[in-house]
Amino acid sequence: MSMKATVRQVDSVTVVDVSGRITLGEACKELRELIRGELGKGHKSILLNLADVTYIDSSGIGELVSAFTAVSSQGGKLKLLKLTKKVHDLLQITKLYTVFDIHDDEAGAVSSF
Amino acid sequence: MNHEASIVEVILESKLENVEQAEEAARGVSAKLKFDEEAQFQIEMAVHEAVINAIHHGNKEDPSKKVYIKFLVSEDRLEIHVRDEGVGFDPSTLPDPLARENLLNISGRGIFLVRKFMDEFRVENPPGGGTEVIMVKHLGSRIQSNQGGTGREHEGDSASG
Questions:
Q1: Residue B2: pLDDT over 70
Q2: Is pLDDT above 80 for B152?
Q3: Which end of chain A has a smaller Cβ tally under 10 Å, C or N?
Q4: B155 within a domain of the structure (yes/no)
Q5: Which of A66, A85, A94 sits opposite B157 (nearest CB)?
């Protein structure tokens, strides 16, 4: 299953619902372009909902980092929502768990911006 | 599958989408060996990263070049070989992705994850050229699951998917 990402606006927060596989190639490229596109529209509060991500590889993790730094460098915030166990574990192993602001509840995540 | 010296081989063209065939083979072999779900995921991910490395960095996604994957099962170990037709790399030169200055690097975590998830890891340069990544999971780790693991056993959700 390839990656799908849809964007919705909740209050002032741009929620990106991501599903499928975030791996090297098209998926990483699509995610990068989507984040850059949202920044281009002035959307600097971005919440990535990863609840339906079935697989992420090292390049996908790198893409999350890239998104985080791109948003931060423009004075915005990128947060993560609803990690699967696998994504959670990979972020722990790579010591990125403390870098990202991670939430399990969407309403709480939205109000935290 | 006979656990003594059985071999599964997969040969792939160097296209990124072909990595899923390698993952499927890894899942099949590790399930037959009765690794637990966590170890199966670790093996699948290690194969994914090694094959992506071979396709992307080794063979530069040139479809005329192949990636050769071999699963060798002996009494006490699953040994996986991933060979490409590239110029090779020295894993000792790779930066530590956990170092503070590298934490926000976009790349450089693939081989780190292979090392983390497998019990043994080495890189060889076979006489015929190319690079061969060799990684081992001890069958003993089937009953010592979560070793080198991920520490989230309290969570109820599944590691599969």
A1: no
A2: no
A3: N
A4: no
A5: A85
Alpha-carbon distance of B132 to B143, in angstroms, equals 29
Q: Residue A41: helix, strand or coil by DSSP? A: coil
The CATH number for B86's domain is 3.30.565.10
Nearest Cα neighbor of B83 from B11, B2, B157, B155 is: B11
What is the Cβ-side half-sphere exposure of residue A29, based on CA atoms within 13 angstroms?
4
Bridge-based pairing of strands A13-22 and A45-56 is: parallel
- Going from the C-alpha of B92 to that of each of B77, B117, B132, the distances in angstroms are 25, 18, 15
Mutate which of B20, B24, B52, B106 to test chain A, going by most A C-beta atoms within 10 A? Answer: B106
List the one residue out of B138, B123, B153, B143 whose CA is nearest residue B43: B138
Boundaries of domain holding B113: 6-142
Per-residue pLDDT at B105: 96
Count of domains forming chain A = 1
Q: What is the pLDDT of residue A1?
A: 63
pLDDT band at B143, cuts 50/70/90? low
Q: What is the pTM of this model?
A: 0.88
Instruction: For A72-94, write each residue's pLDDT tens digit.
Output: 999 999 999 999 999 999 999 99
Q: Do A62 and B107 touch (CB under 8 A)?
A: yes
User: Looking at the complex, does the CB of residue A90 fall below 8 Å from at least one CB of chain B?
Assistant: yes
Confidence check on the interface: ipTM exceeds 0.85, yes or no: yes
pLDDT (mean) for B50-55: 96
